[in-house]
Amino acid sequence: MSESDTINFGALKITLSKAIDSVTYTFEGDVDENFRHKDVPRVGAKQINFILENVNNFNSVGIREWVYLVRDLSALGSLCFKRCSVTMVDQINMVPDSLGNGVVESFYAPYACDEHGETSRLIMAKDHAKEISENIAPDMQCDHCKEKLVFDALEDAYFMFVSGKLSKAS
Ligand SMILES: [Zn+2]
Fold it and tell me: Is the pLDDT of residue 159 over 50?
C-alpha cells in the first residue's frame, strides 16, 4: 500500500510517497526562493529516499531552505540520495550540509564523445566505489560509436562529495 502527495512551489514540484517502511521525496525543477521548507511535511521512516534526477538550478535562498529540510529529516530516518542530477552533485560539493546524514546511492556524471557530443551517465556509487574515492571517473562508452567517453568536468572537484558519504545500501 502506498499513497502520494504533491506540493508545488513555483518551478519546483515535490512528490511525497509513503510505503511500509520507507518514504520517498521526489524533487523536480528549480530549488529557488519559491521553495519553503516549512511547507514540506516531515515524514519519518527507516529509510528516507530522495529522487533527484530532475533537479535543475539552485539559488542561495533555495539551498538554505533545502539544508533546513534535510537537517530535520536526518533526525527522522536514514537519508538516501538517488539519481542525483549534475546540478545536484555540484550543489552538494559546494554545500556539503546539503546531504545531512545522508549517503549518495547513485548520481549522474557529465561525459562527452568527440564525435557525438555531450551526454551524461548514471553511476551507482557502490559499483565504482574505488575509482570515485580516488577521484577517477569510471570508464564509459558512447552509445553511438562505442568509443570511450571523455569525462566532462574536473574529476577532483566532481567526486569530492564522495569522501565518507558512499552508500553501502544496495
Ligand atoms: Zn560517439
Answer: yes
Tell me what the mean pLDDT of segment 70-99 comes to: 95
- HSE-CB at 6 with a 13 A cutoff on CA atoms is 5
62-88 in b/e form (b: 16+ CB < 10 A) is bbbbbbebbeebeeebbbbbbbbbbbb
Residue 142 CA to ligand 1 centre (angstroms): 5
Q: How far is the CA of 73 from the centre of ligand 1 (A)?
A: 42
Give the residue extent of every domain in the chain: 3-162
pTM of the model: 0.91
* 167 pLDDT more than 70: no
Condensed to tens digits (0 to 9), the pLDDT of residues 96-126 reads 899 998 999 999 999 999 999 999 999 999 9
C-alpha–C-alpha distance, residues 94 and 100, integer Å:
14
Select from 67, 46, 59, 50 the least CA-distant residue to 16: 50
What is the CA(121)–ligand 1 centre distance, in A?
A: 14
Distance in Å, CA 141 to ligand 1 centroid: 8
- Spacing, Cα 123 to ligand 1 middle (Å): 19
- The CATH number assigned to the domain with range 3-162 reads 3.30.750.24
